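Exercise: predict the fold of this chain.
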Amino acid sequence: MSHETNSLAPEQLTEQQHTVLVDWLTQLADDEFILGHRDSEWLGLCPTVEEDVAFSSIAQDEVGHAVFYYELIQELEGVSADYLAFQRPAHERKNSLLVERENGDWAYTIVRHYLYDLWDQIRLDAMVESRYTPLAHGTQKMKREEYYHLIHFQHWFARLTGCGGEAQERMKQAMEWVEQDLDDLLDIGVYESDLLSWGILTKPPTEMRSEFYSQYEDLWKDISDLSERMIIFSKQASKGRMGQHSPALASVLENMTEVIRFDPNAQW
């Protein structure tokens, strides 16, 4: 039976399915929204004018994807997308710690975004045939857009790691910094078995993580002798997906909500 004929419609969801789906959509939306804002902070500061234009476009795409997810939540919860994006307190956010970190230098920004996009492609692959049809249809379009993001950051990653010297050393350091947040990024929250059993995801989360880690190890092989180091993933329980965030998120939200705090009736 195809996922179209066995689809989950909003009105057919059980209370538990509703809870699980909203939790997952919130993770996706908050990741995209916060990362999109961090991208926008590079406007006027990128290494070249061309990259300024590219980064602005990527930031717009990420925020647009967040809007899609927030609007799906709006349909399920009856809470406006504007409220979800701008008026929830930090402890209600489910974004990963990685996307809320300060931008740091260009190397950190490139590494963070490239690794995030690798994971996002894996997530999207696991949703394009989701039983929740609105999600499946939307992620098919996003997958096409994210493909070009991935190529963009893949190019920067290869360029900076391949030129040796200070650039390569900064990229290595950025990899080590980002590494500390990878387990949190790859966490899917407390409902991952339900997401799979109900067909909201069509690939087991354990396989999704294994696929990512394999790609991650391949990246290290390009810039370092893996025999000389151990890949260090934090084994702490997820924090971001449970609403436990760093001070960096409060700073981001303070900046993002300036307009709506000044004019609560403003629309994005």
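Check your answer against the key: The chain has one domain: 13-262.
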